[in-house]
Amino acid sequence: MFVYPWKGVIANIPTKYENGRHVGESGTALKEDLTRKGFNPLRVHPLWNRKGHSGFSIVEFRKEWDGFSNAINFEKSFEVQRCGRRDYYSCRRPGDKLYGWVAREYDYHSRGLVGDYLRTNGDLKTVSGKEAEDRRKNSKLVKSLESTLENKETRLKEMETKYFEASQSITTLMEQKDEMIKAYNEETKKMQQNAHDHFNKISLDHERIRDHLLQQKRELEQHEKDLFHREAQNEAETRKLQREKMMNERATLEQKKLQNERATVEQKKADESVLRLAEEQKREKEKLHRKIIELEKQLDAKQALELEIQRMQGALQVMQHMEGDGDTEMRRKMEAMQEELKDKKEELEDLEQLNQALIVKERNCNDELQDARKELINFLRGVSTRAHIGVKKMGELDIKPFLIAAKRKYSAKEADVKAAELCSEWQEHLRNPSWHPFKIITDKEGNAKEILDEGDEKLIAAKTEFGDEVYTAVATALTEMNEYNASGRYIVPELWNYIEGRKATLTDGVEALLNRWKLAKRKRY
Question: The pTM is what?
Answer without folding.
Answer: 0.35
